[in-house]
Write a structure and sequence with these properties.
The protein has one domain. The chain has helices spanning about 5-25, 30-40, 50-70, 75-95, 95-105, 110-130. By secondary structure, the chain is mainly α. The protein is globular and about 45 Å long. It is built from six helices and no strands. Helix 1 (about 5-25) runs antiparallel to helix 6 (about 110-130) and helix 3 runs antiparallel to helix 4 (about 75-95).
């Protein structure tokens, strides 16, 4: 039994996460400035909050679709990642100046190569979940 909403979300997320990993590796020499722009200021850029709200709405719909439709173990894993990962991100980065400053202080091409590789690996994991959703 397949939950197409969860599977579609996971396929899109897998491609997006892996592609962003490739982009981060390709632009690793410029990522210092990008990360500083997003996380280093007194507040987030103007586009951050509407984009983040859109992401929360999409995540909420995916969790709803999981509970409203056929439930698979991959759907449970996705719901758990969203339900546990989002609050951790809020506490660690979004609402905590020290967390934003930590990210703003990431420096060097080698650091961003590792970040990109981890994103590619996580994209593969999301794809594997999508195949099993």
């Amino acid at each position: 039994m397949e939950n197409t909403v969860v599977a579609t979300f996971l396929y899109i997320a897998a491609v997006t996460v892996a592609a962003s990993g490739v982009i981060i590796i390709a632009l690793r020499n410029y990522m210092d400035r990008v990360v500083e722009h997003v996380y280093g200021g007194e507040r987030f850029p103007f586009w951050f909050w509407p984009a983040y709200l859109g992401l929360i709405v999409i995540f909420a719909y995916v969790v709803y679709a999981h509970f409203a439709g056929p439930q698979t173990w991959a759907g449970w894993a996705t719901a758990a990642m969203i339900g546990i990962g989002m609050p951790i991100q809020w506490v660690a980065v979004i609402f905590r100046r020290e967390g934003r400053q930590f990210l703003a202080n990431l420096r060097g091409p080698w650091t961003f190569t590792w970040v990109g590789l981890v994103r590619i690996f996580f994209g593969g994991f999301l794809w594997w979940l999508a195949v099993n959703a």
